[in-house]
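Re: that chain you flagged

S.,

Sorry for the slow reply, it's been a week of failed gels. I finally had a moment to sit down with the sequence you sent. For the record, here it is as I used it:
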Amino acid sequence: MNLKYLFKEYKYYKKLGGLKNIFVKFIFSKTPLKKVVNSSFYNKYYSNMINKKSKKSNTKFLQIENTNLCNATCVMCPHVSMKRKKTTMSFEDFKKITKNVIDHEKIKVVIITGFGEPFLDKTIVDKIKWLNQNYPDIKIDIYTNVSMLTPKITDKLLELKIHKINFSVNGTEKVYNKIMGLDYEKTKEHINYFYEQKKKLNKKFPLTNISLMIIKDNEAEIKKFINFWNNKSDSIMVYIPSDWAGKKKIDYVSEIPFKKKRWPCPALWQFITVDVEGNLIMCCRDYESIIKFGNLLKNNIKEIKNSNKFKDLQQKHLDFNFSTPVCSTCDNAYDSSLNWFN
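Prediction finished late last night. Pasting the structure tokens below so you have them in one place:
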């Protein structure tokens, strides 16, 4: 990454509010200090950090799947083979679930995403508006493939308080349709309209990030992708995709570049991940909702988090026991030596 892009990302993460943690992770993965990772000194320091943070157990993020319907056929996504029921969360269920969690946990960010395209949910604007009105201090993040982000929806969104929107694009016109199964020109049109309207209204938020998952189909397009979208977004993110706990074969461009000692997963302490039916599941990689701790339409969040099933999984991770389904094959292990800095 050259200095121009590095400075751009610095400004983005400064606005995002996580500059310190991102900087620490950067120096331990992109500078010569990466050699220190998993040395005896590092492991002792990192272990102490995990012990302290896990005892505080302050959940910061609520990730909620407002719909698991999707109009894309992304080659790196398991949605095409997903067997669980495909539906959209009702407005009443959304309110009940978010209230259940936010009223009892120290949630800072609500992330509206899951295994679907969030804007296929016709009530999404009403849901965001309700969060704005009832929890004005909560930050709202959205992940979208942009296909349904029409000018009409954009105009409504820019009237609301949204912290960040991620546009998952994953390619240029040459490979986009093959990778996403969507119309590239429509996607480009929607992003351009969003950018122009945000600029016209002189709005700092929502911050926008345009992302690309690196696979062999788009490897040759990375530089072109970054150059094309650089001036239309606050940030450009290019990264290696997940293999969804070993359930999706990914045609990687190369081997995963950062393999270190495996550590407990911070998602079990920092995230509450809820599927479209209200189940509190283990994490975002559990796309079939295999591990369910309880249902937030029926159970109080405190009851679920204090249950033996939930506590036992946390303790397994602290004991370096990753034998639980999903955990046992999770590729998130490749950078777990850094994740607790975030």
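What I noticed first: The CA atoms of residues 6 and 233 lie 14 Å apart.

Talk soon,
D.
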